[in-house]
């Protein structure tokens, strides 16, 4: 890793498919940054094996070992800071984070959520979109703030909802888009093209609309 590459830490709780997409983009030179650490709140998840296969340092900070959310987040923050990250990526990290943690990493902490935010914050987004009869669904990359899945949107991708879809088939279609847009946002962050301000998200010094960057790229 060269000195001018951004340092990326990825937090996971499971399979790590978005981690893989980001690592692949970095190794292919599409992201001017390197994943220097992977942290999971669960042991024995495949995302940790992905890190091992790419010789990326990894560790488990098990939330079950802590009595309070605050105690856990304090240890988690210290683990992240040990890598001196420029960017912190939540990639299927299934924890609600405390305000103190979020504020520690404000402006460099992003998440991907499987819905077109502000629709369907929380869990079971694909089934909720089907139950609502939506004609389109998708995913959103957003900065993380104190509100669950409520931070300012950076970029969204939409997929059609077909009449014969179930939650699994819709999820698979959304995952394809996640693996395209998340590395792109990480690229923008590593290039320092994204800024989180009090009035919203700026890309190349232009304020993005509420639903994030809207042009094709």
Question: What's the quick description here?
Answer:
This protein has helices spanning 17-27, 46-53, 69-81, 99-104, 125-131, 167-190; strands spanning 6-12, 33-40, 58-60, 87-90, 109-113, 136-143, 153-160, 194-197, 200-203, 206-207. The chain is α/β, with parallel strands linked by helices.
Structure in words:
The chain is α/β, with parallel strands linked by helices and 217 residues long. It has one domain (6-113, 136-157, 174-207): Rossmann fold. Helix content is 32%, strand content 24%. It is built from six helices and ten strands; from the N terminus they run E-H-E-H-E-H-E-H-E-H-E-E-H-E-E-E. The chain has helices at 17-27, 46-53, 69-81, 99-104, 125-131, 167-190, and strands at residues 6-12, 33-40, 58-60, 87-90, 109-113, 136-143, 153-160, 194-197, 200-203, 206-207. A seven-stranded mixed beta sheet has the order 3-2-1-4-5-6-7, sandwiched between helices. Helix 1 packs parallel to helix 6. It is globular.
């Amino acid at each position: 890793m060269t000195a001018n590459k951004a340092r990326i830490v990825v937090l996971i709780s499971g399979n790590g498919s978005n981690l893989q997409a980001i690592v692949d983009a970095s190794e292919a030179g599409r992201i001017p940054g390197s994943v220097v650490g992977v942290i999971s709140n669960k042991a024995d998840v495949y995302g940790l094996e992905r890190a091992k296969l790419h010789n990326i340092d990894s560790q488990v900070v098990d939330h079950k070992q802590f009595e309070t959310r605050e105690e856990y987040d304090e240890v988690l923050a210290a683990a992240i800071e040990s890598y001196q990250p420029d960017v912190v990526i939540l990639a299927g990290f299934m924890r609600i984070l405390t305000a103190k943690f979020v504020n520690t990493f404000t402006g460099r902490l992003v998440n991907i959520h499987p819905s077109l935010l502000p629709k369907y914050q929380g869990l079971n987004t694909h089934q909720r979109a089907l139950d609502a009869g939506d004609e389109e669904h998708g995913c959103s990359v957003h900065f993380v703030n104190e509100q669950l899945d409520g931070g300012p949107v950076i970029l969204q991708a939409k997929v059609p909802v077909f009449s014969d879809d179930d939650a699994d088939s819709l999820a698979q279609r959304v995952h394809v888009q996640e693996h395209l847009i998340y590395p792109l946002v990480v690229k923008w962050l590593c290039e320092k093209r994204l800024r989180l301000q009090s009035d919203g998200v700026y890309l190349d010094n232009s304020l993005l609309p509420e639903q994030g960057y809207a042009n094709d790229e």
